[in-house]
Design brief:
The complex is a heterodimer of chains A (392) and B (222). Chain A has 15 helices and twelve strands. By secondary structure, chain A is an alpha+beta fold. Chain A has two domains: 3-51 and 245-391, no CATH class; 59-213, no CATH class. In chain A, strands 1, 2, 4, 5, 6, 7, 8, 9, 11 and 12 form a ten-stranded mixed β-sheet that branches. Chain A has a two-stranded antiparallel ribbon with strand order 3-10. In chain A, β4 and β5 form a beta hairpin. The radius of gyration of chain A is 30 Å and the shape is elongated. In chain B, the strands form two sheets. Chain B has a six-stranded mixed β-sheet, with helices on both faces. In chain B, strands 2-1-4-5 form a four-stranded antiparallel β-sheet, covered by helices on one side. Chain B has helices spanning 45-52, 75-85, 101-106, 116-129, 145-157, 175-190; strands at residues 2-11, 19-29, 34-38, 60-65, 68-69, 86-89, 163-167, 194-199, 212-217, 220-221. Chain B is built from six helices and ten strands; from the N terminus they run βββαββαβαααβαβββ. In chain B, β4 (60-65) and β5 (68-69) form a beta hairpin. In chain B, α4 (116-129) packs across α5. Chain B is of the alpha/beta class and 222 residues long. Helix content of chain B is 31%, strand content 26%. Classes of the chains: A alpha+beta (392), B alpha/beta (222). Chains A and B meet through α1, α11, α12 and α15 of A and α1 and α2 of B.
Chain lengths: 392, 222
C-alpha cells in the first residue's frame, strides 16, 4: 500500500467525519485538561513541600508547660552546643499576631540578618534585599496575603502593631516577597529579630524554640534521649515528625485528587462504552465495503487505529497544553482552592512549573490504550464477518 | 476461467445454529461470459459471490480462478486477489456518504499501492467509462439512484478487474434505470470482463447476451 495515498485518505476521512469526531474530541480534551491540571498542581505543591522539608532543621526543641509550648530560655543554647554530634544550634523568634475582628492572623518571624546559618527557605524569600537600608527604621517584608489584607484596612505603607505591654509599634511595609514563594510566605511578616521580640512580647533571654542539626542520622535517637532526660519539660520535634504531619495534610489533598480522578475515570469509561457500542450499521457497511474492494483486515484496522490515535493524541496534547496554561499561566482558578484552601488569609499562590513526565506518560497510556482498544475490538469483530451480509 | 468444484459452505458448524448455505456446488464460468445466478432470498446467491471473491472461505471444495485455487487463501493474499481481480457492484451501492464521487472511486486503488497521481488518472478514466465524470466532485449523497449506480460501476471498474460481481444490482432502481444498467452490462462485457450477477429481478430473464443462467434454491444449483 502506498503510504501517501493511504495517509491522504486517512486525513480526508478525518476531515469528512469531523462533525462525528468533534464531540468526543471536546469531551476528551476537557478530561485530559482536568486530570493534567490536578497532576500539575499536585506536582508543584509536592515539590514545594519537599523543598520546605529539606530546609527544616533536624530537631526543634520547645519548652512545654501545661501541654502548651511556651518561650524557652536562650541560655540553653550553649548547653546544646556542647553536646557531641550537635551542630548549628539557633534560637528562633516567631509567633502569630491576631487581627481579632476578622479572626485572622499573621505569622511574624524575627530574623537575625547577620546570622550565617540562616534557613535556606527564608533566605530565598528575601534574596536581593538591601539589608542596611531595611534595618535603618522599623521595616517589614510582607507576604502577598498580608499586603492585600492590610490594603483592605487602608494600611498601604505601614501598620500599627499592638504590643503586649499595651504600646503601639508603627512598622513600615518595605516590600513583598517574590510570587513563587507564596505557598510559604502568604501570611508571613519578616522583621528584624529585635522588632519581632517587641511585637510578640518575647524578652531578650527567651526564644520561641531552639533548632539544631545532627549530621549523623544514627546519633539522632541518642541525642533526643539525652535532651529529654536533661530537660524533662521540653518537647523534641524531629524532621520525621514534620514530614508525617505534611503527609497527613497531603493525604487529605490526595483524597480530593483521587475523587476527581475517579470521576474522570468513570466519565472516560462511559465514553469508551459508548464508542464501543456506537459502531452502527453505517460503520459496519463502510468496513464491509472496504473489505470487498480489496482492503485487508490489517489495512482497515490500521486506518481506524490511526484515525482514533490522531484524535486521541491531539486531544491529549491540547489538553496538557491547556492544563499547563491554566495552572502555570492563570494559576488554576477554582481548582487551586481545592488543593490549597485558605482558612486564614486568602492565598494567591503562584504554582512553579513542575512536570512529572513519568506520571504524564502513565496518564497518556491510561488514556490512549483503552481509547484505541474501544474502537479496535469492534472494528476487528466486524472486519472478520462476512462483508456481503454486513452490507445488507 | 472460474471453476467451482464440490463447494460447500456451512455457517456455525457443529452448533445448534448450524446452517448449510451452499451444498455441493459445481459450476464453470468461461472468460468474458455473463452468468446470471437466479434465486429467491436465502437461496445462497450472495454466499456464492462472497466465496468467488475470497471474502469467505468455504467449508470444503475448490474455487479455481485462472488455475489458482483461491478457496483457502490467507486473508492478506485474499484481499490482494480481490483488489487486483474483482470489482463489486452492490444492491445499495455501498458508497461512502461523506465522500465525493471521485473519492469513492479512488478508494479501490489505495490497496494496490498507486501513488496519488496514478489514482487520479485511473479514477478519471473509470468515471468517463461509467459516464459519471461530470459529477466528479459532487458528494454522493446528492446523487440520484441511477447516478449512484454509475458511481458504483466506476468503482468496480477502476482497478481494471477481470471479474465483476453484482449482488442484486437493480434492487434499488426503478425499471428505467434497471434497463439502463442492463445496457451497461453489455458495455462491460464488451470490455472483456467476466460478469456474474446474483439477482431475483425478472428483467434479467430477458437478457439476450447472457451466456449462462443458473437457478439456485436452498443452497443448491437446480
Amino acid at each position: 500500500m502506498n503510504n501517501s495515498s493511504f495517509l491522504n485518505f486517512l486525513f480526508l476521512l478525518i476531515y469528512k467525519h469531523r462533525a462525528k469526531h468533534l464531540a468526543i474530541f471536546i469531551i476528551l480534551l476537557i478530561l485530559v485538561a482536568l486530570l493534567s491540571s490536578t497532576l500539575f498542581i499536585t506536582s508543584s505543591i509536592k515539590k514545594e513541600v519537599l523543598d520546605t522539608l529539606d530546609a527544616q532543621p533536624d530537631f526543634i526543641v520547645q519548652k512545654i508547660r501545661g501541654g502548651r509550648s511556651v518561650d524557652i530560655d536562650t541560655d540553653i543554647v550553649e548547653e546544646f552546643r556542647s553536646i557531641r554530634g550537635v551542630m548549628e544550634v539557633k534560637p528562633r523568634v516567631f509567633g502569630r499576631y491576631f487581627v481579632t475582628d476578622k479572626m485572622q492572623y499573621f505569622t511574624i518571624v524575627g530574623i537575625d540578618f547577620f546570622e550565617e546559618s540562616m534557613d535556606k527557605k527564608l533566605k530565598k524569600v528575601f534574596e536581593n534585599l538591601d539589608i542596611k537600608k531595611f534595618l535603618e527604621k522599623d521595616n517589614m517584608l510582607v507576604g502577598d496575603g498580608v499586603k492585600k489584607f492590610l490594603a483592605q484596612k487602608h494600611y498601604k505603607k505601614y501598620m500599627h502593631f499592638k504590643t503586649p505591654d499595651a504600646g503601639v509599634k508603627k512598622v513600615y511595609i518595605y516590600d513583598t516577597f517574590k510570587d513563587d514563594t507564596n505557598l510559604i510566605s502568604n501570611d508571613l511578616i519578616i522583621t528584624d529579630i529585635e522588632l519581632a521580640r517587641e511585637i510578640l512580647g518575647i524578652s531578650k533571654t527567651k526564644a520561641t524554640d531552639i533548632i539544631l542539626n545532627i549530621p549523623n542520622d544514627a546519633e539522632q535517637d541518642n541525642i533526643k534521649l539525652k535532651l529529654l532526660s536533661k530537660h524533662y519539660d521540653t518537647r523534641v520535634i524531629t524532621k520525621k515528625d514534620i514530614e508525617n504531619s505534611y503527609e497527613y495534610l497531603f493525604n487529605y489533598k490526595s483524597g480530593v485528587f483521587l475523587l476527581l480522578f475517579m470521576i474522570c475515570i468513570l466519565t472516560f469509561m462511559i465514553i469508551l462504552y459508548q464508542r464501543y457500542s456506537m459502531i452502527n450499521s453505517n460503520d459496519k457497511k463502510e468496513i464491509a465495503t472496504l473489505r470487498s474492494i480489496g482492503w485487508s483486515i490489517k489495512d482497515i484496522l490500521k486506518l481506524k487505529v490511526l484515525e482514533t490515535l490522531f484524535i486521541g493524541i491531539w486531544a491529549f496534547v491540547l489538553g496538557v497544553i491547556l492544563a499547563f496554561v491554566f495552572v502555570f499561566g492563570f494559576n488554576a482558578p477554582f481548582l487551586k482552592e481545592v488543593f490549597i484552601g485558605f482558612n486564614n488569609l486568602e492565598n494567591s499562590v503562584t504554582f512553579s512549573p513542575v512536570i512529572d513526565f513519568g506520571l504524564l506518560f502513565s496518564l497518556f497510556l491510561f488514556f490512549i490504550v483503552p481509547f484505541v482498544a474501544s474502537i479496535l475490538i469492534p472494528v476487528w469483530k466486524i472486519a472478520i464477518t462476512d462483508p456481503i451480509e454486513a452490507m445488507k | 476461467m472460474i471453476e467451482i468444484k464440490n463447494l460447500n459452505m456451512t455457517f456455525n458448524p457443529d452448533s445448534q445454529k448450524e446452517f448449510k448455505a451452499l451444498k455441493n456446488i459445481n459450476l464453470s464460468i468461461e472468460k468474458n461470459n455473463l452468468t446470471i445466478i437466479k434465486g429467491v432470498s436465502g437461496s445462497g446467491k450472495s454466499t456464492l459471490l462472497s466465496l468467488i471473491s475470497a471474502l469467505l472461505k468455504p467449508t470444503s471444495g475448490e474455487i479455481i480462478v485462472d488455475a489458482h485455487n483461491i478457496a483457502k487463501l490467507p486473508e492478506h493474499h485474499a484481499s490482494k486477489f480481490r483488489a487486483k481481480n474483482i470489482g463489486f457492484i452492490f444492491q445499495s451501492f455501498n458508497l461512502f456518504d461523506s465522500l465525493s464521487v471521485s473519492e469513492n472511486i479512488s478508494l479501490a486503488l489505495i490497496p494496490l499501492g498507486f501513488n496519488p497521481n496514478e489514482i487520479s488518472q485511473k479514477t478519471q478514466k473509470a468515471m468517463k467509462i461509467a459516464n459519471i465524470d461530470h459529477k466528479s466532485n459532487q458528494n454522493v449523497n446528492n446523487l440520484s439512484g441511477g447516478e449512484k449506480q454509475r458511481c458504483a460501476i466506476a468503482r468496480a471498474l477502476v482497478n481494471e478487474p477481470k471479474i465483476i460481481l453484482c449482488d442484486e444490482p437493480t434492487a434499488n432502481l426503478d425499471e428505467a434505470n434497471s434497463l439502463k444498467f442492463i445496457q451497461t452490462l453489455k458495455m462491460l462485457k464488451s470490455l472483456d470482463k467476466t460478469l456474474i450477477i446474483a439477482t431475483h429481478d425478472p428483467l434479467f430473464e430477458k437478457i439476450s447476451f447472457a451466456d449462462k443462467i443458473v437457478h439456485m434454491k436452498d443452497g443448491e444449483i437446480l
